[in-house]
Amino acid sequence: DGGITQSPKYLFRKEGQNVTLSCEQNLNHDAMYWYRQDPGQGLRLIYYSQIVNDFQKGDIAEGYSVSREKKESFPLTVTSAQKNPTAFYLCASSREIGNQPQHFGDGTRLSIL
Amino acid sequence: SQQGEEDPQALSIQEGENATMNCSYKTSINNLQWYRQNSGRGLVHLILIRSNEREKHSGRLRVTLDTSKKSSSLLITASRAADTASYFCASMNSGYSTLTFGKGTMLLVSP
Q1: Mutation for testing the B interface, residue in A99, A108, A109, A110 having most B CBs under 10 Å
Q2: pLDDT tens for each residue of A40-56
Q3: Is the Cβ of B88 closer than 8 Å to some Cβ of chain A?
Q4: Per-block average pLDDT, block size 10, for chain A (113 residues)?
Q5: Cβ–Cβ < 8 Å for B45, A101
Q6: B98 touches chain A (CB under 8 A)
Q7: Taking CB atoms and an 8 Å cutoff, what residues of chain A touch B93?
Q8: b/e for B6-43, b at 16 or more Cβ within 10 A?
Q9: Alpha-carbon span B98 to B17, nearest angstrom
């Protein structure tokens, strides 16, 4: 079955550490997205990528970095510069950027030790 | 920045009843989308309605869009316990290619 796989499901980070969240899709979608969800809140866009080797900052990119070296993969690194990283992180993809529905993974919950 | 705002924040109904959730937005849009999220899971796309459409149906779901009032509603008819979830609207603003999500409505359907 086609879909989006996020790993790990739960992740713990120590102060000062960088951690990388994995997102892989086999839907042959060009566009991919990373969102952050805090309790009782909607989703906020961190980064998005329209195509391989291209990505743009979203509304809350500070303290995060991404890469898009392969169409299938869009990893997110939460750096030590992100002072409040505890959240639920969701990856999504769409056939192309724009007027398309987005398909979501099941998320990674990141907590600080 | 967050634009869509859902109303109510929470809704509790009995199985078989209809559930109506509303969404308001502030600027002109290309389309508006509704998603469902079960607890601890990712979002699932329900319906996309374009700015030149007024109503759309999918099974027990009915979405309306009123661009003059900058609002949309999602109606779930004959609700089931399995419909228990959070429901989010997301707008794609004119001139932009990404979605802006609201804070969601938590729906509880009791057997």
Answers
A1: A99
A2: 888 999 999 999 999 99
A3: yes
A4: 90 91 97 95 94 96 97 96 93 93 97 88
A5: yes
A6: yes
A7: none
A8: beeeebebeeeeebbbebbbeeebbbbbbbbbeeebbb
A9: 34
